[in-house]
Specification:
By secondary structure, the chain is of the alpha/beta class. The chain contains ten helices and nine strands. The radius of gyration is 17 Å and the shape is globular. The chain binds S-adenosylmethionine. One of its GO terms (cellular component) is mitochondrial matrix.
Length: 271
């Protein structure tokens, strides 16, 4: 299966299927992947990984909703766009795509800095880190990016460098099963693509809101798993963006992306 097929499946919302295929073909995480985990404990970016990411991504600020932000992404000009995934030494590169949900959130934050100014912000499932970057650029007092993929963490550091920002703190812990985080604002871009993950997120977000009155913003382009999830009935539409042509082409059938605000009802849905 070529990388292009991976992307195609991913964009159809069948990430889980692809992740299983990918993993079974590669036989689990590589040694290099394990070594990368040390980065989160404060060691500097592994030079071998840095070189690999720099060689196999393209720096771009076009084709997405936030030309103010430069990112290292996987584009048709990159080797692994067509290369066999077996040769890719790390986990599935979700971080190498700037997803429509994250694009909408970042655009909204850049256009409405008051949403984050002077506030603490958690970008959950940060991927390439664009939304966290938008929060820093817009004056958030504290930003934490969270992604369970350690390579995403490294890509975020490179993306901070590209945008002349000091890297914000990044954690690769799976925090959604832990206690509620005390954040003024939690942002989630394109995170409702898998039912089990969506259930876990929903429960954790409810806890954060009830414990700390956290504000929650979700960016999603209308994926089936999101629209059919119980959280959908408790969301209020904030703004809808028409997607740029390039993003439309990459995201078969999707034409816009929406920022939603989450207000759980007291009567409560405990899903
Ligand atoms: C579809 S991508 C979205 C990335 C980014 N928010 C954007 O919109 O471009 C989903 C990201 O969530 C991460 N992820 C999946 N499960 C997670 C979890 N339990 N906690 C944190 N991140 C997670 C994946 O590694 C991936 O980078």
């Amino acid at each position: 299966m070529a990388f292009h097929d991976w992307k195609w499946l991913l964009l159809l919302g069948r990430q889980t299927t692809l992740a299983k295929v990918w993993r079974s073909r590669r036989g689990g995480p590589s040694l290099c992947w394990k070594r990368c985990c040390h980065w989160s404990t404060g060691k500097s970016l592994d030079p071998e990984v840095r070189a690999f990411l720099e060689e196999n991504t393209e720096v771009t600020n076009s084709g997405h909703l936030t030309p103010e932000i430069r990112l290292r992404l996987l584009t048709p000009r990159c080797r692994f766009w067509r290369e066999k995934p077996d040769l890719w030494p790390y986990g599935d590169p979700f971080w190498a795509i700037y997803w429509p949900g994250g694009q909408a959130l970042s655009r909204y934050i850049l256009d409405n800095p008051r949403v984050v100014k002077g506030r603490s912000v958690l970008d959950l499932g940060s991927g390439c880190g664009a939304t966290a970057i938008a929060a820093v650029m817009s004056g958030a007092s504290q930003v934490l990016a969270n992604d369970i993929d350690p390579i995403a963490g490294m890509a975020m550091i490179l993306n901070c460098e590209l945008n002349h920002l000091n890297p914000f703190p990044i954690t690769i812990k799976n925090i959604i099963n832990s206690e509620a985080g005390n954040w003024d604002l939690i942002v989630l871009g394109d995170m409702f693509y898998d039912e089990q993950l969506a259930d876990g997120l929903h429960r954790w977000l409810q806890k954060c809101i009830r414990t700390h009155q956290t504000e929650v913003l979700i960016g999603d382009p209308g994926r089936h798993q999101f629209l059919s999830h119980s959280i959908r009935s408790q969301l209020h539409k904030v703004i809808e963006y028409s997607l740029p042509e390039n993003t439309r082409q990459e995201n078969y059938g999707l034409t816009s992306s929406i920022v939603w605000s989450y207000h759980p009802s007291n009567s409560s849905d405990n899903s």
